[in-house]
Automatic annotation (TrEMBL), chain A:
This is Tripartite tricarboxylate transporter TctB family protein. Keywords: Membrane, Transmembrane, Transmembrane helix. It holds the Pfam family TctB. It comes from the Bacteria. Residues 12-145 form the DUF1468 domain. The lineage of its organism: Bacteria, Pseudomonadati, Pseudomonadota, Alphaproteobacteria, Hyphomicrobiales. It comes from Bradyrhizobium archetypum. InterPro entries: DUF1468. The chain crosses the membrane at residues 43-65, 77-110, 122-141.
UniProtKB/TrEMBL annotation, chain B:
Keywords: Membrane, Transmembrane, Transmembrane helix. Pfam families: TctA. It comes from Bradyrhizobium archetypum. Residues 20-438 form the DUF112 domain. This is Tripartite tricarboxylate transporter permease. The keyword Cell membrane does not apply. The lineage of its organism: Bacteria, Pseudomonadati, Pseudomonadota, Alphaproteobacteria, Hyphomicrobiales.
Amino acid sequence: MTRSRIDLQDLLFGLFLVAVAAATLVATRNLTVGHAADMGPGYMPRVVALALMGFGIFFTGRGLWRMRVGIAPVQWRPLLAILASVGVFALTAERLGLAIASVAAVMLASFATREGRLVETVAFALLLSGAAVLLFVKLLGLPIPIWPR
Amino acid sequence: MELFNNLLMGLSTALELNNLVFCLIGVVIGTAIGVLPGIGPIPTVALLLPFTFGLSPASAMIMLAGIFYGAQYGGSTTAILVNVPGETSSVVTCIDGHEMAKQGRAGTALAIAAIASFFAGTIATIVIAVLSVPLSVLALKFTAVEYFSLLVLGLIAAVVLAHGSVAKSLAMVLLGLLLGLVGIDVSSGVARMTFGIAALSDGLDFVPIAMGMFGLGEIIANLERPAERRVVSQSIRSLIPRRADFRAAFPAMVRGTTLGSVLGVLPGGGAALPPFSSYALEKKLARDPSRFGKGAIEGVAGPEAANNAGAQTSFIPLLTLGIPANALMALMIGALMMQGIQPGPQIMTEQPKLVWGVIASMWVGNLMLLVINLPLVGLWVSMLKIPYRLLFPAIVLFCCIGTYGIANSLFNVWLMMGCAMIGYFFIKIGVEPAPLLLGLVLGPQLEENFRRAMLLADGDFTVFVSRPISAVILGVVAVLLLAMLSPEIVRTRKEALAE
């Protein structure tokens, strides 16, 4: 943990909120707003977005103004491995089937830590894949192909 | 007498064979995730939601509820034996529970914790049964105006009483509300914020959001911390507490149950606040406070009773008013909606078998927990030997399959991936994601009631303060928010919620 001249946590949260609010306002610009007695579909999104904008500006301001402990640096390995694991599952599940997608997802997720041993990971991935097919497809009847079509 | 009849009806539902089986499945899974640190009840319930589709509503709710209170039991087992709180609610149990284990009294501590939990669970079941009827009668008088105010109260109170900065949590609630607005507007049929994606027109599913933010985001953050090595060395000699232990623990159990029951009903209460408050109370009441932290049995009995009572009574606002007290209850509401049941005050009269069945099942489930926890304690502890490096890939895989399973849509898997990233970002910048889930689930109801109220009042905002019940509710909201501005209360809140 390093000391930082600005409160990075507040600043990032504030900027995030401002971005979300701005995106909402742009995305809903064509919706009818209406008035309180007869609200159009754009009324609530706009009200919420404006409130979020307010919070965002407040946190951004506070973040710039006060000193706090900085954020621990991001470790890319776990972040990327887990995201890649989910992504690979989404890409392969319907095309290559649950059995292969499961093995790929588990293997990729295991890269998140340095502790894993390859043999153990492969064995475990095969085991989990089998368990997943048995539990979700055979037992719970999830309509997903098991093997490539 | 009506209460008695209701409970009997509930018991007959809860004792149906398939419901007994689902109750057992629920409490076993609950205990397991309670024992394992790093997996909380929120992702677990989110994970199992898709598979409750095929069940009857009562079976689904009974199983999901079992996971929640089962986790409270499991959490205390590891707290006592290994000094690792399986859940936040059992952090306090570590203090004196583990100390007792070090002195060779692990068995006593475990037994007292289980008995206190069972005692609290029994009393809390009765409290739910007694309170539910009058509350739901009152709630039936509510119109859209009162309901809107009540939803606001629920959201605000959940924010004020939960962990974390109030301002940040409010912003998160708004963010959740915004996400809840995505999809086709019910009254005009216009698509909002769908960005032309067909999968978004029915709105965002909360399961991928909950799993991404709570399940996966948490895993990524956990992996950043260096791995802990845990040693389980305590042997359990005798599980039967001595009479003196029991005499010392009993008053603490009663006090813990009372405190937990009251705090659990409050929005935001849930399972985290009661044990801390109970521990503080026991320490204050003790003749010799210095014993605490050195294996005082009251320090185990009180908080354990409080957390179980609180976990159960947090179902009261859900079952009677349709308002979730915490993020987990928000998931329960989602489960009801997936079953086609609109949560709200009418649920008690329309679905009496469901409501009373769930209430009665809690008592049945507590009895099961007592049986599966004490004799099988060795089995649960051995689960701790499963290394995290094997555990987390399995959770990731099950999250993927579960998310896919809600609507057989790969879009949800991508959505979960995005939410995992955002969830990790929130953890990094120190923002609690729980309020977002509340906002997301309550958002559509909030908008609908607001629009209906405005339509009735012809756009006159004063309707919220001119109707007495609504005015009182909003008054409470104002007091809560003003109280947060007082530095003294902010300090006490910080101390009360500090871990």
